[in-house]
Amino acid sequence: MLSFLSQGRRGSGWGMALPALLLLLAFFVIPVAGLLSRSVTEPQPGLQNYETLLGSFTYIRIFLNTFLVSGVVTLITALIAFPVAWALAIMSPRIASVLFAVILLSMWTNLLARTYAWMVLLQQTGLVNKLLMGLGLTSQPLQLTNNLIGVTIGMVYIMLPFMILPLYGVIRKIDPAILQAAALCGATKGQALRRVLLPLAAPGIASGALMVFVMSLGYFVTPSLLGGTSNMMVAELIVQQVQSLVNWGMGGAAAFILLVVTLALYALQLRLFDAEAR
Amino acid sequence: MLLDFDKLGLWKWILSAICALMALFLLLPILFIVALSFGNSRWLIFPPPGWTLKWYHDLFADPRWLSAAFTSAKIALVVMVLSVALGLLASLALTRGTFRGRAVLRAFFLTPMVLPVVIIAVALYAAFLRLGLNGTFVGFVIAHLIVALPFSVITISGALETFDPSIEDAAILCGASPWEARFRVTLPAISHGLFSAAIFSFLISWDEVVLAIFMASPTLQTLPVKVWTTLRQDLTPVIAAASTLLVGLTAILMIVAALIRKGKSR
């Protein structure tokens, strides 16, 4: 319904946004802009920080690591999340609500606590290695921490809820009649899955995948605890440059590259999926 | 057919099995830490040879853990209050305002959520070094507020969108002033949104690691910073004990949030 009394005349109401706006300007926009500007002013004006970053294999490898891990994490979470979201959308609400509680509990459990659990589980003498050796899958304990395998496992664990929840929302809205129609027209289950359900769920998969990918790109805690220093990702590079080497120019340049990639993907997400929702 | 669970045949069991495995995958690490925190193995052998409360004893005997927890709670409470207040005002502007550029403003309010926290952390660290806010309570609050605010805006504006503004109009027609209508009609109606925003904001501040690492000083640190620095030295079971308490707090807050939602749907 149209409300006219509480809204007042056209153009009003922006004053209420002012406190939050000022806070974000002073402590978000200006600091971030300051950091980025240091990438072209320190140690001397010019683009040499970007030349160093994009010109040496050491740094290129860090970016490749980041994209590789984010890509693999996105793929694995999508593969797990699709069947789970599908089942959640159609199973009895009671069981679904139990599963949701598990998903939310894991999502809201302290990040460090979850990463700590995986550090212990994946260490040489840890439970995962014991299990693998007990099952006869390996005779030597595998090196699962201080490398990208550990980072990937830890990140899949953290990102899974962020893929399941949006996917669930999309599958829930699909009209079952469409799939009944597919069945009536003689489609087998495999055909209906491939040619009806998956295409209809595709926007959810794409939107969840984009979100997980973007979040993974900038992740710091899990990669630095499970990955070790020889397998750095971009976020660790930024922290290392700023905190240990006090090289604000390089830190700012790496931050700028990460920021551009993130915002570009975010804009893509808004364009692809928000336009549809409206 | 594919959207009717009972007509899936064999697939029903495959999907159920995947769900069960996923639940185990998500739940086991959490249960594992809880079990470890009571185990008596210094080297985190599982299953532990025996049970003990030693790690909790160590945790509470060390004043640094307690003071870190106290600092965390103080910061999270202040962040919670400010985040709900600013979030409410911003949400009112976004849902009730008639000015142009509301969609842009909304996207802007959400950017701190999208941007990698590490960028915000490093940028604020540089700014705070200049302003002398590093390692201060105010610095912590501002940093945590920046990342909590988007969640507050999403939750509260979501609640406002489902509330029909014409009810507010009715109150005004009955003689209430616009602000009185807002306080006595709209606020109670969206209280579930305000509570959820408060819980989210509290948890975000309470759990924040990356910003906190940069804001911390040797004399002022939050619980996650203490866990982080300890974790970098070794995997002592004391962390398992601290983590267990954190899991317990999360579970309690989640139950509270669920009860609020239930109360709302009634």
What is the H/E order of chain B?
A: HHHHHHHHHHHH
Q: Over the alpha carbons, how many angstroms does the gyration radius of chain B reach?
A: 23 Å
Number of helices of chain A: 12
Whole-number tally of structural domains of chain A: 1
Q: Sketch the topology of chain A as an H/E string, one letter per element.
A: HHHHHHHHHHHH
Report the mean per-residue pLDDT of chain B as an integer.
89
CATH superfamily of the largest domain in chain B: MetI-like
Total strands of chain A: the figure is: 0
Give a structural overview.
The complex is a heterodimer of chains A (278) and B (266). With 278 residues, chain A is mostly helical. Chain A has helices at 18-41, 48-55, 57-90, 93-108, 111-122, 127-134, 148-173, 176-184, 189-217, 221-227, 234-244, 248-277. Chain A has a single domain (47-277), classed as Orthogonal Bundle (MetI-like fold), CATH 1.10.3720.10. Chain A contains twelve helices and no strands. Chain B is mostly helical and 266 residues long. Chain B contains twelve helices and no strands. Chain B has helices at 10-38, 54-61, 63-96, 102-114, 117-131, 137-161, 165-173, 178-189, 191-207, 210-215, 223-233, 237-265. The longest helix of chain B has 34 residues, at 63-96. Chain B is globular, with a radius of gyration of 23 Å. The two termini of chain B are 33 Å apart. At the A-B interface, helix 1, helix 3, helix 4, helix 5 and helix 7 of A face helix 1, helix 3, helix 4, helix 5 and helix 6 of B.
Task: Give the helix/strand layout.
The complex is a heterodimer of chains A (278) and B (266).
Chain A: H1 18-41, H2 48-55, H3 57-90, H4 93-108, H5 111-122, H6 127-134, H7 148-173, H8 176-184, H9 189-217, H10 221-227, H11 234-244, H12 248-277
Helix pairs in contact in A: 1-12, 2-3, 2-12, 3-4, 3-7, 3-9, 4-7, 5-7, 5-10, 7-9, 7-10, 8-9, 9-12, 11-12
Chain B: H1 10-38, H2 54-61, H3 63-96, H4 102-114, H5 117-131, H6 137-161, H7 165-173, H8 178-189, H9 191-207, H10 210-215, H11 223-233, H12 237-265
Helix pairs in contact in B: 1-12, 2-12, 3-6, 3-9, 3-11, 4-6, 6-9, 7-8, 9-12
